[in-house]
Amino acid sequence: MIQLSFPFIAAMVGKNLRYSRGVKCGEQSNGNSKHAVFILEHGGTISNVVIGADQSEGIHCKGPCTILNAWFEDVCEDAITLLQNSGTTNIIGGGARNAVDKVVQHNGGGKVNIESFCGINFGKLYRSCGDCPHQMMREVHIDSVTAQNGKALVGLNANYGDVARIDTGTNSYTNLRSACDTFKGNNKGSKVTRVQVNKHNDNCTF
């Protein structure tokens, strides 16, 4: 176990070592980048890391990034938080378990590709931010994922034009309640309203 006293900001190959911050999870206490284990700069890449349970935030990407084979033993607030204004982030391989709410939190804009990822015991594998102060259209593409005991694979904001393309034929689901839920988001930090559950529509293709 490698315990970090501050976020490690770099592109790196982790050699499948376990990294942590040595703090107890606050369970939905809305941490920020200073609480993350890793922060990736614009265009950064991280691969072959294990994020231990004693942390509040996992990986934060300040711009488009690439995350390869990152494993999250016990998700606290979010496993991955994306802050890019535009561009494409790729999350390939790896997995996460025990996310009370979200695995991937998309606060910025642009597109996210999630491929060959495994999620076990989660609220949402991907969520477009429902109440961020700067809202915009977001896009996600999901294929070749394994999802077990999840409430929803994707949560989108219909009113901001979010789009999800989910290649269901390549995915494996066990006890997944919904492939895609749509919400009415806001930019005021207010509670969001769910619009549709597990429905094919202009926002969700699966």
UniProtKB/TrEMBL annotation:
Reactions catalysed according to its record: Eliminative cleavage of (1->4)-alpha-D-galacturonan to give oligosaccharides with 4-deoxy-alpha-D-galact-4-enuronosyl groups at their non-reducing ends
Secretion signal span: none
Location(s) in or outside the cell: Secreted
Keywords, ordered alphabetically: Calcium, Lyase, Secreted, Signal
GO cellular component: extracellular region
SUPFAM superfamilies: Pectin lyase-like (SSF51126)
EC identifiers of the protein: 4.2.2.2
Cofactor: Ca(2+)
GO biological process: pectin catabolic process
Function: Pectinolytic enzyme consist of four classes of enzymes: pectin lyase, polygalacturonase, pectin methylesterase and rhamnogalacturonase. Among pectinolytic enzymes, pectin lyase is the most important in depolymerization of pectin, since it cleaves internal glycosidic bonds of highly methylated pectins. Favors pectate, the anion, over pectin, the methyl ester.
Record-given protein name: Pectate lyase
